[in-house]
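S.,

Sequence below, as promised.
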Amino acid sequence: MGTGTSKVDGSQGQRTALDFEIKEMEAVLKLVHRQAGTRDWVDTGNYRFRMSVAAGRTTLDKDALQEELTEIFRAEHLGGIDVDALLARCERIGAPFEKLSISPIN
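The prediction came back faster than expected:
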């Protein structure tokens, strides 16, 4: 029974090491793409890659929504509420992030 646990631990360690190696390689590829000064694909022989910036996620700020609703209910003016506008005022957009795309060259 003990050997099964060490196999799992060993696999987890390998995965952690691979994840770290992948993150390092992605960082290098992103740097190379930035230094290439292009938005096009960068050709490396068998593979090509490019980087793009993707917009951050849109999330609901629950604290802001709670404050808005508390104020509205306190005032008891429920008839003319524009719910879409209320929710839009509570949205927050996360920071943009870089996305790396890699594909084989056919």
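The first helix runs from residue 2 to 36.

Coffee later?
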